[in-house]
Amino acid sequence: MLTTVLRGFTVPEIRKKLLFTAAVLALYRLGSHIPAPGINSAAVADIQKNFAGSNILGFLNLFSGGGLQRIALFALGIMPYVTASIILQLLQVVVPTLEKLSKEGEVGQAKITQYTRYLTVALALAQSVGYVFLFRSFQGQAGQEVIKNYGPETFFLIVISLTAGTILLMWMGELITQRGIGNGISLLIFASIVARLPEGFQSWWTSPDQVFRVLMPFLAIAIVAAVVFVQEGQRRIPVQFAKQQVGRRMAGGQQSYLPLRVNMAGVIPVIFAASIMAFPPTVGQLIGTPWAKSMAAFFNPSGAAYLVGETIFIIMFTYFYTAVTFNPVDQAENLKKYGGFIPGVRPGRPTAEYLDRILARLTFPGALFLAAVAALPTILINQTNTNLFFGGTSLLIVVGVALDTVKQMEAQLMMRSYEGFLRS
């Protein structure tokens, strides 16, 4: 990975993309430290304990890179956009109009992206209003006003600032995707998690459990290696292309393969599941009534109910997202259209059924692995009473995004190598 990055700096065009990506991520980290207007910075320091540990605020604070506990401009992070994307993905299955748009190529995808942006603004606005009431409720703990000169004007100013921060992050993520390296939205989440790693290392190093301190590095290396192994694992389905007469030449007759990954959905199911499971405790924390607080405690990220719910959603979303990204019927039709077939399987519907059967067998162990990796660190943290500031969900996202980014960089390096060979 490090070799690929160093090679990228030797190519001027890729170097510009890397520097641009780094600059945007640096601006994101800067915005996570700038307080929103009307916030009393002295009082904020007294409420930090509310965002520590494995409660829901600590979980949401992780995905904002610490911006939530500072009540910064980027306190909401990019999660409203991720939630909006989840909702639009689900609606494409049940709403015929959106399903039709998804099949219209770039024009349809541009329209769906526009709807996602509108929904992001609405979610960010609603979340900002809830957070303002939550921050104001911390006044008793801080012993002074968290929001200075609270009134309609201050309320409106903070809500607009937090919403505008999310919109700005959405734009920055799209800029990285267009002009930088990797997926911009994923890299923003990646930067938020990595920014908390030093605190996690410090917590591990100061842990009173000596056995945990010794075993943790080996366990972390083993989990990372397992994630990479499963993420890169694939089953190659052999494909034979029939010979065809094209003019005076014979074309085709080649052998190839169709790669089916064990985890074709990547880290998307984990992000989806984490976003949905974070909703009930967030609402409970914001409302503040006794039943709402009980619901927030029941779905605490360190509790059994949260882990069971997250596991179920990860498995469901793994199958769902795999079905969205890979359609066996379309793949069978494309193979038949270009004269390809799987040896021993008839073209058309039998090929689609064969691919669907193989994909189901691959997806199930991949989904179980994602669920296990997401739950294992949380269970370990609960047993050792050590807060590492990140868990299995964070680890899967970091490793998955890093692998995808390096793959894109390697593809661009390979393309430049071919161009140089042709010029020579």
Q: Please give the radius of gyration in angstroms.
A: 24 Å
**Helical coverage, percent range:** over 70%
* Quaternary organization: single chain
Number of helical stretches of at least 4 residues: 18
Placed side by side, the strands forming the largest sheet appear as 4-1-5
Write down the CATH class of the largest domain.
Answer: Mainly Alpha
Along the chain, the helix and strand elements come as: HHHHHHHHHHHHEEEEHHHHEHH
CATH topology of the largest domain: Preprotein translocase SecY subunit
Structural class: mainly alpha
Strand content: 5-15%
Just name the CATH architecture of the largest domain: Orthogonal Bundle
| Main sheet attributes: strand count, strand direction, barrel closure | 3 strands, antiparallel
Number of strands: 5
CATH superfamily of the largest domain: SecY subunit domain
Which residues form runs of ≥5 with pLDDT under 50?
Answer: 419-424
Mean pLDDT: 80
- C-alpha termini separation: 28 Å
Explain the overall architecture:
- With 424 residues, this protein is mainly alpha-helical.
- The protein folds into 2 domains: 1-195, SecY subunit domain (Preprotein translocase SecY subunit, Orthogonal Bundle); 197-390, SecY subunit domain (Preprotein translocase SecY subunit).
- 71% of the residues lie in helices and 5% in strands.
- The chain contains 18 helices and 5 strands.
- A 3-stranded antiparallel sheet has the order 4-1-5. The protein has a two-stranded antiparallel sheet with strand order 2-3.
- α4 (56-63) crosses α13.
- It is globular and about 85 Å long.
- The model is unreliable at 419-424 (pLDDT under 50).
